[in-house]
UniProtKB/TrEMBL annotation, chain A:
Keyword flag Disulfide bond: no
Domain Amino acid permease/ SLC12A: 28-432
An annotated GO cellular component: membrane
Entries under PANTHER family matching the protein: AMINO ACID TRANSPORTER-RELATED, MEMBRANE PROTEIN
Domain of life, per lineage: Bacteria
Source taxonomy: Bacteria, Bacillati, Actinomycetota, Actinomycetes, Propionibacteriales
Localization annotation: Membrane
Protein name: APC family permease
GO biological-process terms attached to the record: transmembrane transport
Xref: InterPro entries: AA-permease/SLC12A_dom, APC_superfamily
From TrEMBL, chain B:
Species of origin: Nocardioides bruguierae
InterPro entries: HTH_MetabolicPath_Reg, Tscrpt_reg_IclR_N, WH-like_DNA-bd_sf, WH_DNA-bd_sf
Biological process annotations from GO: negative regulation of DNA-templated transcription
Listed transmembrane segments: none
Record protein name field: Helix-turn-helix domain-containing protein
Record-annotated HTH iclR-type domain positions: 20-82
Listed GO MF terms: DNA binding; DNA-binding transcription factor activity
PANTHER family: HELIX-TURN-HELIX TRANSCRIPTIONAL REGULATOR, ICLR FAMILY, HTH-TYPE TRANSCRIPTIONAL REPRESSOR ALLR
Amino acid sequence: MPAPSPSPLLRRSPVSGLARRTMAFPEVLAQSVAAVAPSAVMVTVPAVVHPVAGAWSALVFALVAVLMTGVGAAVNVFAGRMVGVSGLYGFTVRGLGPGPGVVAGAAMAIGYGGAACVGVLGAGQFGLAALDDGARLLGSPPGPLGDPGPGLSAVAAVLAAVGVVVLLVRGVRASARAVLVTETVAITVVLVVLVVVAASDLSISAGLTTALAPGQWGVALLLATMAFVGFESSTTLASESRQPMVTVPRAVRWTPLVAASLYVVASLLFGADLAAGGTSDRLAWSLAGGDGAPALELLLNLGITASWVACALGSVTALARIVFTMAREGLLPPVLGRVSAASGTPSAAIVLVGAHLAVVPAVLLLVGFSVPALFVLVMTMSAFGYLLGYVLVCLAAPALLGRLEERTQLGAVVPRVVAGVLVVIVLWGAATGGAWAVGGFVAYGLVVGAALALWRRRARRRGLALGLYDEPTRADVLRPDAPGAHRSPGTRP
Amino acid sequence: MNAPAGPPAGDGGIIGGRQPRAVQSALRVLEAVAVEGDGVTAKQIAQRLGMAPATVYRLVNILVAEEYLVRLPGLQGFALGVRMGVFVDAAGAGEPTVLVKAARDVLAGLRLRVRVGIHLVTYRGDLVRFRDVDQDFPPPVGEAQLNQVLDSCALGELRAGGAAYVHRREDVAPGCASLAVAVTDETGHVHAAVWLVGAPGGVDVAVAAVEDLLPLVQGLDPLLR
């Protein structure tokens, strides 16, 4: 257990250089919503869950939302007490100590990295599908766009990754506003299309509907849980938010509710239609059976492309701040802690993350992974990352409250129950998920083990102190030179 | 200091139900931190006030979020936040400044050497406060006006740190030159300043002798804390 010794008040924030206290609540909310990418999830996950859950789909999403609200409460134990820069990584270090903290950091890095990867893959695929729709509307014969090969898919993913990095380096507020607009448009488009399809004789041939066999409840539940991950990501922007201990917890509370209501609506709307439509192993949807189908499909695909771009933006934003924090702590090379003087973004970390994002999915496509296979694999890996992070933060919250002597009965029990349920979902999903789960867990162990080894080696060599956050400075306190400002917590003079 | 938050959302302007009790409790929590001193924990506040711990935990989190309180590094102890400074200053407004004689002697010595307005100011949060005003040469602007232009004047530049003094050929008012000399603590934090302001010729005399003034001004540091 770490004993966080009170350090004297600093003159300068340890995260100086970031554009501190500049983002307003809508921009902070946009970060969490974008990382969830509800409009992209709306057209994917309910379609995968439906063959298993059928009419119960809406209820499944509602129940998972309750669970995620529990995770959010544990996250907010920290978000209401410290201005974090690295989200669940820094929180877990505070609650459970550096070892579990590093595991949480690696897990969340896999989570955000995988989500970003899925984001650029999805943006590429749906972008190509939209181009195909456009070409068909103009009367072109079916071309390679409709059924892109690995080369074309890789190029589209690389273009999406480059676009994301360019937007992010320009500044966090600019990208947050872009995200807010694109996500709002995307949600509206998806809802409109679903309503039109439900009310007309159009039918959906949804992607990935063959992914699950009936009866695979464990995987279905796991996927429904995955539909919410990312809602906690605004915690990585606390330092950059105005009144962070108000805005960030609010964003963490609202996002699962917003997402859940969209998923419930989507499940109800296309539940009936899905049974009538065909199945497909492509990612993008096809609409058939009416005159308006091509135009509607173009609209839908454009909206979902935007949502996947927003997802990649949100995930890279969060991941870059974990990398930035680890660099400022000394766990990663200091160069990654550099901040762009012009935009106040951790530009070195963004470029590093972006470079991986441009290269890794493209290479995997070129070596022979099919798009849907890669999509499911990376999404699952990513979700396990998030869920491990959630379990750790749920255990960290009561630990922190106990140490601060601020624990209530509810605060001691609820997060641990939530953690237990999450563990059950993960194990059940893995048990019914088949061979990919074993490969996933092995890859997982390697990444987390490497992170732990790195920490142990560096910590021994230079006595690293993890758990950096945007702590109060002399300028925040009424009397910075009062003796008590430096005294040990809990000890009375 | 950040922009003060607006009223909580959904507030219809009527205080009803259990809200009066919550307001009383919040004020008592603030009072407890002021009395107990910085570093007091939430549990100690609850014990002192005889209030339900869960209520106190919620209130301190709200007060921290609103920046009236600060959760000190280590996360367990609390201190009054810089936003409380406006109450403290309002309480002191209009009353004669209490300054120890040794400090007044330093200022008197300075005023005998250089015949421009020589004022002592202290920094509080994002604001500057007059602690001792030169009666013979009153400052060209009042405290409120000075704080409005603080970011663009010598005193504001001095507060940003990095320099022992800042000289401006024209500052805060037309025809006014100024020299701001820092009073720093042992960590290098600028907590006060001596502000020499007047005709450019007079201020030039002070600038020429600034190396002599620096130790005299710095001598105010222990007298102001």
